[in-house]
Amino acid sequence: MAAxxxxxxxxxxxxxxxxxxxxxxxxxGAELTPEQMMQAASERITALEAxxxxxxxxxxxxxxxxANVRARxxxxxxxxxxxxxxxxxxDVVETAxxxxxxxxxxxxxxxxxxxxxxxxxxxxxxxRSFLGTLERNGIKREDPVGQxxxxxLHQAMAEQESEAHKPGTVMQAWSSAWTLNGRLLxxxxxxxxxxxxxxxxxxxxx
Length: 206
Prior knowledge:
The structure is a single chain. This protein is of the alpha+beta class. It has 2 domains: 41-84; 85-196, Head domain of nucleotide exchange factor GrpE (Nucleotide Exchange Factor Grpe, Chain A, domain 2, Roll). It has helices at residues 2-8, 12-17, 23-31, 34-83, 86-104, 114-136, 197-205, and strands at 139-142, 154-161, 170-173, 177-180, 183-186, 188-194. α5 (86-104) runs antiparallel to α6. The longest helix has 50 residues, at 34-83. The protein starts with a helix and ends with a helix.
């Protein structure tokens, strides 16, 4: 009977090993007051919010950088499309200049022989059509005569005294200015007006 009693008696060590039976853990859990539990939860929420804010800031920086990369890519692609033909455009401009020189070499006036007048009219018609085609493809000719000298578009070949032109004005052009989509292809070769020496002397005397 003693053996049977010992067999059915609960094992104290087994009871101590069962989950939730640790008296120290139970004691520690019982030590947390509701205020402490609320404070711990609040601190955890604050930490998560700070982590979320940091992740959001990183994401926004990454998006901004991606937007800049895309914008640079689009600009580079646009520049490549617009200016890839720049060398070809410069050659075409030289052809247009030669056409203009050929027209300018023909006689002008009302009493020209019929054949000369027809040749001139025909070449001027070809020039107008040619210039229209160039403009539709971004190549533009600009006549500088009468404009204020612009170093971005004009190359001064000489200065000449003039009473009829304001100083700094282009009074004569040996060639036109040409641009490709707003970018200078070839500057105009110009003669720039300057004040007559007599006016300069009078101005200095005053």
